[in-house]
């Protein structure tokens, strides 16, 4: 999840150290001064995993700008390959 605000790396470390996300499956990161959270969350569905992660990030005081999923990228990759056959 990409965060709307662009907090400095120190703020990201502080949020991570303070365990502001109630579960321990999210890692706060920053790259090129853009903050994001990487989740490895188990849930009954991808929808549930994303919705609960959104709730956790918002509860930690951050706004989410967008959501990316490794699964989505993988599915797109296979669909592109299949379209070439």
Feature tags:
85 residues, alpha+beta, two-stranded antiparallel sheet, two-stranded antiparallel ribbon, 45% helix, globular
Q: What does this protein look like?
A:
- With 85 residues, the protein is an alpha+beta fold.
- It has one domain.
- It has 3 helices and 4 strands.
- The strands form 2 sheets. Strands 1-4 form a two-stranded antiparallel sheet.
- The radius of gyration is 15 Å and the shape is globular.
- The N and C termini lie far apart (33 Å).
The proportion of residues in beta strands is 15-25%
Discrete helix count: 3
The total of beta strands comes to 4
Q: Quickly count the domains.
A: 1
H and E order: EHEEHEH
* End-to-end C-alpha gap: 33 Å
Class computed from helices, strands and strand pairing: alpha+beta
Largest sheet: 2 strands, antiparallel
Mean pLDDT: 75
Shape: globular
């Amino acid at each position: 999840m990409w965060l709307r605000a662009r907090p400095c790396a120190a703020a990201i470390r502080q949020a991570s150290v303070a365990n502001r996300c109630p579960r321990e499956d999210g890692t706060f990161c920053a790259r090129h001064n853009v903050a994001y959270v990487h989740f490895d969350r188990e849930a009954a569905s991808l929808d549930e995993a994303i919705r609960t992660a959104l709730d956790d990030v918002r509860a930690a005081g951050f706004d989410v700008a967008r959501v990316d999923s490794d699964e989505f990228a993988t599915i797109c990759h296979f669909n592109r390959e299949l379209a070439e056959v």
